[in-house]
Structure prediction request, 279 residues.
Amino acid sequence: MSTMPVQDSPGDVLAVEIEGLVKTFGGLRAVSDVNMRVPQRSIYGLLGPNGAGKTTVLNMISGFLSPDSGAIRVHGKETHGLVPYRIAREGVARTYQNIRLFPGMTVLETVATGAYTRRRSTILGAITLSRAERRERAEVKEKALGLLEQVGVEASPDALAETLSYGEQRRVEIARALATEPRVLLLDEPTAGMNDAESQQIGELLLRLRGEGLTLVLIEHNMRLVEEFCDEVTVMNSGAVLAVGTLAWCLEQPDVREAYFGKRSDARRIETLRRARRG
Ligand SMILES: Nc1ncnc2c1ncn2[C@@H]1O[C@H](COP(=O)(O)OP(=O)(O)OP(=O)(O)O)[C@@H](O)[C@H]1O
Ligand SMILES: [Mg+2]
Prediction:
């Protein structure tokens, strides 16, 4: 593994810290002794060819999967063994590689489900539709509409989420995640299925979110986007970390070059890499 020499700021608690993470599926070591240090208020890229183990790492941070061994800390708190909703309460939200929107729900309702994870009112209040409950509903609606605008969803809030274009659905998912008021947002291929202009908008959204104090960890294959927006990256292959540093530095490492350029199935990625390198 290659690590770019960097100046560590030892006083800062890391947003996400992973040590010696291992996950096997049957005989397959999908994640093998992975370490990762994500500083607070950074845009952090998790890269690597297909099957590298990136989504599995994200699934363990969000509690979707339980590690076989290793440690995960979020803002210094050990989260290994906590169920997903407890990890969400620690301020971790995520989006999915394969979009997961609830069927039959409107765009607005979808985002509101995120906001309701923070709800204050009681079941009894909901049944009797108390004044507090009505006020909360109005607040949630306003918040959801604000988030939809922030992430650039142009479709009507009353449209069924599943009828939106792929890119719009991804933005709705981001809005739903943001509605939980996370401190760490995990994004699994947020620009998949988007054109260059839409991807650029996502990059700019990430910058704004970082400006508001969020930490963003994203799995991303669009190297141009990674080069422009990620502060630091970890590159994985076959479950292991190959390199850690800036994208430009990582792409100079022989292991990384081989992982990408050595596989014919990744021809499309290689082309985006080359384009990114040419600027
Ligand atoms: N639930 C599972 N059961 C069995 N094998 C799995 C499971 N999830 C992932 N794997 C395997 O683990 C390895 C890592 O998969 P993972 O989805 O983490 O890769 P990835 O880096 O996200 O790839 P991609 O870029 O294609 O999304 C792959 O070989 C995959 O087939
Ligand atoms: Mg994946």
The chain has eleven helices and eleven strands. The mean pLDDT is 89. Residues 131-151 form the longest helix (21 residues).
